[in-house]
Amino acid sequence: MMQERNYNADDCIDNPKSVLSILTPKEKEFLKQNYTCAFYKKGEIIFKEGDKPLGLMILAEGKVKIFKEGVGGREQIVRMAKPVGFIGYRALFAEENHTATAVAIEDCVSCIVDKESVFRVMRSNADLSMSIIQSFASELGFSHARTVTLTQKHIRGRLAESLIFLKDTYGYEDDNKTIKIYLSREDVANLSNMTTSNAIRTLSTFAQEGVISIDGRKIRILDLPKLERISDLG
Amino acid sequence: MMQERNYNADDCIDNPKSVLSILTPKEKEFLKQNYTCAFYKKGEIIFKEGDKPLGLMILAEGKVKIFKEGVGGREQIVRMAKPVGFIGYRALFAEENHTATAVAIEDCVSCIVDKESVFRVMRSNADLSMSIIQSFASELGFSHARTVTLTQKHIRGRLAESLIFLKDTYGYEDDNKTIKIYLSREDVANLSNMTTSNAIRTLSTFAQEGVISIDGRKIRILDLPKLERISDLG
DNA sequence: ATCAAATTATGCTGTATAGCATGCAAAATT
DNA sequence: AATTTTGCATGCTATACAGCATAATTTGAT
Fold it and tell me: In the predicted model, what is the mean pLDDT of residues B62-90?
């Protein structure tokens, strides 16, 4: 566990970007009485395949990858979380143990609201349930789309799509070009269903073609339309 | 549209297997006042990618495949529906147009409850919302698992898994061996992320090995443990 | 009953990509 | 500062699978 870094934990409930922002002040107050905070260093495991979900985790700070282990321990990243989003909620609401593992990509702060409190507020506020249903429905659509592209697109298309996905999820740095997340080549590969070698190779090719530029883990998108064309082409 | 075949449409709301069975008699009555029925012949399109969802469709009779079109029009089946289950509900609850196409595998009966009525009952009955959330959460877990196996397993493993999936979804005929759904080799291929040729070839191999027997579209599982081993092996 | 179209079956060829090996650079640990 | 570890880069080889062609069989339409 890392040191507290002046994080105001109540923010993850009040934050207007959160699904919880639709709650009444009273309901928010109730949740604030029933959460704890946890800190995770870069690389730390937040939860593991097989673990029992303890409550609703809200990622307050940092970035998290959620992946499944496949054939021969090969990782497939199924989701990338950002603040202020839920993590581990799928297993919680399915009343299952976790079927994926969450690892901090950066130092993270996470708030955990215990299960009973969440369920109580959901029963009192239909809007929250409706929002959660909508989130799940969108996420499921995304997952279906991902299944198709990961199975059908060629390496270039898959990588291009992943880069666009990362850009859409985390946005750009101030230069409006650098994707605001720094992944190892291995993680890029595990996101895109390819070997690390091929991720490295294909990133280099993209750089040679002037579509992106690479500086270590810093990836800058130089020609987004072309990247989109590569993704669409498949 | 096909002829009515003496189907008692109210059954799809009263059916104890349905998520709707948890509703109060009053709520059920309300839904029964607000649905219409539709009949589809084998091969007919129920809804198409891009269509706007009109309401909550309950598949009352028949079997339905839901698929997405990928690179070069190649189909990927993302779901197989059976009675009494919802169809097209993902798009409805995501407030999106359909992102997949549904086609009747057999002659089908479907009840459509209009959107407003569904949403009203959901707001009045938190248990229904909770059930729907749980369904979505399970389905999302299934989709993630599927993504991994479709990308990572080899052809034999993917086909074995698909056959087990079909058996788990539709069950056996009275002989306790024949999978209770009759798909074309093309559909089997589109479910398992492979070409039709390879589906045919691999089914033949399984038959030669005595794991299954094939008689046209009738597939009988002769050695389930072995089939599971092939699936787990990858 | 006849013909056309779709489905099933099988074989051959090409290629995308995995899998490995090797070298180098950067970072972390001592 | 020295050494170990980790990550990046690139080339070579093997192979799983797609893609196509052809033929046989079944299904559906007229």
Answer: 95
